[in-house]
Write a structure and sequence with these properties.
55% helix; single chain; Trna Endonuclease, Chain: A, domain 1; 2 domains; 5-stranded mixed beta sheet; alpha+beta
Amino acid sequence: MIIKKPAKSFGQGTTGHDFSVLIQDLRNLHDHLKYQTVKAVNTNLTLRNWLFGCRIKKYELKGRDRAKYGEGLFAALAEKLTGQGIPNCAQWQLYLYRNFYLAFPEIFGTLSQKLQSMLPDEPQTSVKSGALFPKSDFLPDKLLNDLSYSHFEELTKVEPGLKRNFYVAECIRGNWSVRELKRQIASLYYERASLSKNKAKLSNITHAKAETLSAEQIIRDPYVFEFLGAKPREVMAESDMEDALLTKLQDFLLELGRGFCFEARQKRILIGGEHYFVDLVFYHRILKCHVLIELKTESFKHEHIGQLNTYVNWYRKNETAKGDNPPIGILLCTRRNRALIEYALAGINNRLFISKYQLELPGKDEIQAFLNKQICKGGLKRIVH
């Protein structure tokens, strides 16, 4: 994980102790310690997950009662660990930790003696000796310092050998964000580079357009804030306009008095190993269903409906209790003083239910009038412009 360090040390290159020097020194102190904090959190998170994977693999090989669990080991582990409040221990995550350990065994070389002693049957040879682990093209410290766990998670999914090493090298070289790494893997950058006659040109073009990693992105990583025990709302940044509109919209729906019961804001859900956030979630006591609201502070795009329908379907499968009706979603798109409202009725075929929903929920015109009023208010209007 590469984060820009302070431009100069405290007080360096300055004379005297005037006010401007004080401000600069305090800024340098802040930047330096922020850099160290983010680096330390990510290092510890990565080590935790690698050690989890290492410990699980050793149990699979040598656990005295491992036969008792067999293929149900990861499910049993996930249930027990999650029940004890240990975050990021879903069954699929535990599989990834084990695979992470197997994909990057050289991380062992970065462990302190204390951490090494916490592993049963600890190896008697180190990574550097080459006697235990396969040879790596990267120094363990380089991997640990320049990549976050989220990077490792994506790299672990890449087939081992030259292809994985290629993405590791390019990611470190370009200081790529996780999103950029995913984009490059999905665009078959490795395959394109292999077929390209001018590899240097392709590399330069790719890196010139690539999104680089920032401290803010790392701090907002769902793995990081759960590791620290923080709630999503404490760290997930939103635009000023979106935040203001969501607050007003939340109050507006509750004031309608039509059965809306507020349940969550920025509700985190997990789909296929990816974290997503639903802007507002209500439960409607009259309709007996969840109402999901997505706000986009931009013009309507077709993918917005697809995203909302995905959330609605996820809620229908994972959150619908016995006696509940299927959830519905409301998509709000806004640009300046125009608004678009669309209802997503995924999985609802009964026209009577649809009619009932339309009767109990706010009408499109009513919501649009509310949005237009809020957007045109002084503060929000200035934000939009």
